[in-house]
Design brief:
The chain is mainly alpha-helical. About 60% of the residues lie in helices and about 5% in strands.
Length: about 160
């Protein structure tokens, strides 16, 4: 998913060049859609495996205290959310529901790790510079989350059933 998003981003960035045809754009966005569908299914399956191995994401809320267990599960969830946001960003669509449910703190979970609403004056009509700002933030957050996931997988104990 990451590679396809980066490819689509480069195409958008260089979209005015003579070598970028409408057919190229159509093919790229068809690939992006296909990749997103496959990624969504594969990411859900991987979340199940990681949950079985490292523990399922749990959030307990008692008044103002919130504790989360399974850094692996939480961080993989964040990566999934970031890739979904990246996908919609490249399509130039930022549905209000997406901004709400994928923002940090929604239902007391990390989700993307970003407060998404702050990027847009009017999410129904996202401006090019707003999409670019979010895209650049997604890239940085994704790279950090990927490093965090690797660290968590190396440090957290694998659960062993008896």
């Amino acid at each position: 998913m990451w590679i396809t998003c980066q490819h689509a981003w480069r195409l958008l960035r260089n979209g005015d060049s003579e070598s970028t045809t409408d057919d190229t754009k159509s093919a790229t966005f068809a690939l992006l859609n296909e990749t997103y569908l496959k990624f969504s299914a594969d990411a859900a399956a991987l979340a199940t495996v990681l949950g079985a191995r490292y523990g399922v994401e749990e959030t307990e809320s008692t008044g103002q205290t919130t504790s989360t267990r399974s850094r692996v599960s939480v961080t993989w969830h964040q990566i999934r959310d970031l890739m979904t946001i990246y996908y919609y960003n490249l399509l130039g669509r930022m549905p209000e529901e997406l901004l709400k449910t994928y923002s940090q703190g929604y239902k007391e979970k990390r989700h993307s790790g970003l407060e998404l609403r702050r990027f847009f004056a009017d999410p129904a009509k996202p401006k090019s510079e707003e999409l670019t700002d979010l895209r650049e933030t997604i890239v940085l957050e994704y790279l950090k989350a990927l490093e965090d996931l690797t660290t968590a997988m190396m440090k957290d104990r694998i659960k062993v059933s008896r």
